[in-house]
Design a protein that fits this description.
This protein is α+β, with helices and mostly antiparallel strands and 101 residues long. The chain has one domain (9-99): Beta-carbonic Anhydrase, Chain A. It contains five helices and two strands. The protein has helices at residues 9-22, 24-27, 32-52, 55-62, 90-99, and strands spanning 68-74, 81-89. Strands 1-2 form a two-stranded antiparallel sheet. Strand 1 (68-74) and strand 2 form a beta hairpin. The longest helix has 21 residues, at 32-52. The N and C termini lie far apart (42 Å).
């Protein structure tokens, strides 16, 4: 969340910086720790989408395999595993395709 360069790792962090940029309004007025929590949660949801778009997952769904991608986050401070309600299944994908047909 800082605005300084770190070298090669900046290539990997680019996506996280985009998450912050695209969701800037949601971060306004939050304290630093709350911003970090929100950033982690939004990033998990983004990664659910990224996993769903991989060829492995796409091919499994095309073959009719039962596969669900879930977005959960674990808080190491209190040990709570939180379901972010970011679940995509093959039936979700099929519903979207049929609604556009």
């Amino acid at each position: 969340m800082e605005d300084q360069e770190h070298g090669l790792i900046d290539n990997w962090l680019r996506h996280i910086k985009d998450v912050i940029r695209f969701n800037a309004e949601r971060f306004k007025g939050l304290k630093h720790n709350k911003k970090l929590d929100l950033l982690c949660e939004i990033n998990v949801k983004e990664q659910v989408i990224n996993v769903c778009n991989t060829t492995i997952v796409q091919n499994a769904w095309k073959q009719g395999r039962e596969l669900s991608i879930h977005g959960w986050i674990y808080n190491i401070e209190n040990g709570i595993l939180k379901d972010l309600n970011a679940c995509v299944t093959s039936s979700d994908v099929n519903r979207r395709k049929n609604s556009h047909a």
